Amino acid sequence: MNFTLILFIILAVVAFASALGLLVSRNAVYAALFLVLNFATVAVFYLLLGAPFIALAQVTVYAGAIMVLFLFVIMLLGAEKLPKGQVLPWQRPLAIGLAALLLAEAGFLLFQRLRLTASLSNPDASVNTTEALRTLAVTLFNQYLLPFEVTSVLLLVAMVGAIVLTKKEKGEEA
Amino acid sequence: MVGVIPLSYYLAISAVLFVMGALGVLVRRNPLIIFMSIELMLNAANLAFLAFARALNVLTGQIFVLFVMTVAAAEVAVGLALIVVIFRTKHSIDVDLMSSLKG
Fold first, then answer.
1. Given 3.20.20.70, 3.10.450.50, 3.30.499.10, 1.10.287.3510, which CATH number is that of B7-93?
2. B55: which chain A residues are within 8 Å (Cβ-Cβ)?
3. How far is B48 from chain A (nearest CA, A)?
4. ipTM of the predicted structure?
5. What share of chain B is helix, strand, coil (3-state, %, to 5)?
6. Per-residue pLDDT tens listing for chain A (174 residues)
7. Which of the two ends of chain B, N or C, has the fewest CB atoms closer than 10 A to its terminal CB?
């Protein structure tokens, strides 16, 4: 039992518990905050995997920008709690059954079929140098330049789409 | 050797998070929480990408995670705009009410 494994187990428990909290919380604001906690623990996983840049991008983009947008919309619509509508009696058992099946398939694939033997050692200090970041940037801007440009177009389309969708029509009452 | 974690542990936690996201999409009726569950699933996929990138010692996994984050941000912007429009027309965002196209 080494220190990293203990850290991993603690993080895994927190990630699982926060995902469970997202699933069961009645209040959408609590669900959003549970998701922020989940993103933060996953960011620590990224640090363990030797990807400090991705970990910080995770915190700023996901836990920062995206979740602020979520909280803003929840509070704008007043959608913290929805009134109880009619509940399909078979929906929840069926969903849990299907999820259990999916998990069983994943476990079968991981531990029966693939039998991955690779182990990941702790990242050494070299991932924290500017050299590592430069290697990442060179790969991104040479080998993956076209996909990178396409993502910029995608972001532009999403921005225009969001503005056009929420724009009020001419003469429409506010 | 100090500090060694098998690759399968990371993939297992990734699979568990993905399944919980899928469960959230299936059981919850608040579209905002359904969106959050989708984010959870994207995140689980990112974790698997980075674990494999570390195991195979390549950078491509990290690049792909950046792209997935961009797609997630775009998806959230458009999705939340749609939810706001639906709220404006129906005055509720319960997914059960979004059945106008039902035959």
1. 1.10.287.3510
2. 116, 118, 120
3. 10
4. 0.90
5. 80, 5, 20
6. 678 889 899 999 999 999 999 999 888 999 999 999 999 999 999 998 989 999 999 999 988 889 999 999 999 888 777 777 677 788 888 999 999 999 999 888 888 887 777 788 777 777 888 888 898 999 999 999 999 999 999 999 999 999 998 887 766 655
7. C
